[in-house]
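Fill-in record for Hint domain-containing protein.
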Amino acid sequence: MTWIAISEGDHHYSRPDAAIVENGVLPRGTLLIETRLSAEGRPQNLLSFERLHPQPYKFALHAIPGGGLALVVANGNDVFHTALSHDSRDRADILRISYSWDLHQRKGRLAIERPEYETVKAVTLEDAPALLAEDVVAITVDPRRRCLDRDVSFFAVSDQVEPVGPAPTLSPDVPILTQTGYQPAGTLRRGDLVDTMESGLVPVLQAVSRVVPSCGSFQPVRLRAPYFGLLQDILVAPDQRLVVGGSEVEYTFGREAVLVPARHLVNGTSAIRTSPGPVVRYCQLVMPRHESLVAAGCLVESLYLGRLRRNPDALAHSLLAGTDRAHLPEHARSSYSVVRPFEAVTLMMRRAA
């Protein structure tokens, strides 16, 4: 099991019976909160809750103006406190904040991810306190048991230490062009030959997958055929980037092609948000170089790792933890620029004209 509780607006999902619990405590887990920073620069009580029995307890996670997070967990006379600073220059950015703990390892982590910019900032914690299973259920199903800032889009709890960093973005059933024709992305493995725009047939170095809440910036986007050159509809994460070219791109941007995140393409016609269930599985392919894959006729980016292998701490926190660094590639940035939201709208209008 992984995600045992999800709360988004008036909707909630709770499966505490599926979690591994020791004496009422989740021995390991992750609290994930997705939010935007306050446009007014005000302090934010992102999530807090408290109880009196069996002893006084309080959990509070605050966003501080100027770019910082403060976490306080008070259990009786024991008080745990930590802080993490971040860059708050653009307050419209989506932030994924995760607090993880592992009682057996006596470790924890507080992390901030900016999915739109592929940046992560994290701090390792000693003796990070765990959450009680009953507290998780209470704050998920009963809004009266918690204080939640209005800018928070959702929060979720997993019974695992969830990875941060490079994340998969393709539904497992997305057809990827290979040496033998189209194959579902979720069936591809190391050594399979995949057709790429830049390098022709290239072997897959590693296939990765992950289950995440199907909400917020994880909520799938359905790209509909025949738009974007698609032969059939495909399901992708909002952060999946498409390689878009053509005369409209050359006219608008003076480039052969640009990268467009799927989130910027949502218009209710060619790209729509969809909710397949409380959770969704995404997968992706690690290639020797940062490549453009053919997905049902549309060009999409492979998983970008950058220089992850040069940072042992970041690698240990990532989905590729445990992988020998010598077996991981270094990826240069794509030669294609990433368009901004208003540029994507302009481009799609020109293509539709």
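KEY FINDING: Residues 175-352 form a domain with the Endonuclease - Pi-scei; Chain A, domain 1 fold (CATH 2.170.16.10).
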